[in-house]
Specification:
Helix content: 25-40%
Structural class: alpha/beta
Oligomer: single chain
Distance between the termini: 20 Å
Radius of gyration: 16 Å
Strand content: 15-25%
Number of helices: 6
Number of strands: 5
Order of helices and strands: HEEHHHEHEHE
Largest sheet: 5 strands, mixed
Length: 161
C-alpha cells in the first residue's frame, strides 16, 4: 500500500515538511495543466501506480490538429455552458489524454490512481471505470453529479483536496 512509511502518508502532510504523496502528484498535475490549450479551463491529469507516474495528459486538440488558442473556441462561439455538450469541442480532456497516452505506449493503467486538477466529467468517468482505475484524487471545484454517482457505483474512491 502506498504511504505506509512514517511521514509518507497519501493524503496528510508529513512530519519532515515533505509533501504527502497525494499533494506531490496534485502539484505535478498543476504543472501539466499549464500545457493545456483550452481557452476556458486548463486541466492536467496523471495516472500513478506504486508512486510512479505512468502517463500524463492535459486538455487540448488531438496531436497534429490546430489548437483552440490558434483558431478560437467552438464552445465560446456557440455560447455552450461549461459541463454541457462535451462533444462540441475540438479538445480531448486531460483524463482522456492520460489514458490514451498510456495505451499508445503499451502501459496498463489497471489499479492506478488518477490525479487531476478537476473532477472528471461523465464521459471521462466511464473511461476511467473501464480502464480499471481504482482511485481518483481531485483538486479544483468543478462538479459533475452523474459522474460522481457512476464513480461511486463502480466503487472508485474519490478524494477531494
Amino acid at each position: 500500500m502506498e504511504g505506509n512509511r512514517q511521514g509518507e502518508g497519501l493524503s496528510g502532510g508529513t512530519e519532515s515538511g515533505r509533501p504527502a504523496w497525494d499533494d506531490y502528484f496534485l502539484d505535478i498535475v498543476g504543472l501539466v495543466a499549464k500545457r493545456a490549450t483550452c481557452q476556458r479551463r486548463r486541466v492536467g491529469a496523471a495516472l500513478v501506480r506504486d508512486r510512479r507516474i505512468l502517463s500524463t495528459g492535459y486538455n487540448g486538440a488531438p496531436s497534429g490538429l490546430r489548437h483552440c488558442l490558434e483558431i478560437g473556441c467552438i464552445r465560446e462561439q456557440n455560447h455552450i455552458p461549461s459541463g454541457e455538450r462535451h462533444e462540441l469541442c475540438r479538445g480531448l480532456h486531460a483524463e482522456q489524454n492520460a489514458i490514451i497516452q498510456a495505451a499508445l505506449h503499451g502501459v496498463s493503467v489497471k489499479g492506478a490512481t488518477l490525479y487531476c486538477t478537476n473532477q472528471p466529467c461523465t464521459i471521462c468517468a466511464k473511461m476511467i471505470i473501464n480502464a480499471g482505475i481504482v482511485r481518483i484524487v481531485v483538486g479544483g471545484d468543478y462538479r459533475d453529479g452523474l459522474a460522481e454517482e457512476m464513480l461511486a457505483e463502480a466503487g472508485i474512491e474519490v478524494l477531494r483536496r
